[in-house]
Amino acid sequence: MRDAPSHVPEPLALYAIGLGSNRRHARHGDPRRVLLAALAAMESAGIEPVDASPIIASAPLGPSRRRYANAVALVASPLSPPEMLDRLKAIEAAFGRRKGQRWSARTLDLDILLWSGGAWSDAALTIPHPEMARRLFVLRPLTTIAPRWRHPLAQRSVRQLLRRLERPRPIDRKAAAHEAGGWSGD
Known about the structure:
Elements: E1 13-21, H1 31-44, E2 48-52, E3 56-58, E4 68-77, H2 81-94, E5 109-115, E6 120-121, E7 126-127, H3 136-145, H4 158-166, H5 173-179
Antiparallel strand pairs: 1-4, 1-5, 2-4, 3-4, 6-7
Helix pairs in contact: 3-4
């Protein structure tokens, strides 16, 4: 008697998703609560939560004046990167996200930061997120839940990227003197 072939399901892909909000939502409330509701919305959209970082406050980029609430979630899903992007965009739209000015105030921003499959690039999506290694509001929360995840292009762990970004830089004494009004030009 032969054993029936066993079907071993393919492991789910793991994604690191950046979450950000700096605008109240009529139903969910302040930006912190918007992020908690977004985590629940991802789960109800068939995206399995694995872990989530603490929510942090960060200064805005660009013209927006409102501070952001930011977090990172690790999620598992059978979705391909383009399918995941479509699912995240649908969640953003359900929270009232409108296309418009880059870096403006927004109710919800969901970004694919990393994917267990490595790198991905097409016209609509680039993984890893091209700016993640330069953003403390991404690396700090990501380090709390996936410090050893290696950036597939930089070949450094998330913890190493954070340390590199937080490292004190040497002071350019001429530039500092000029800004202080002490530059005489000679």
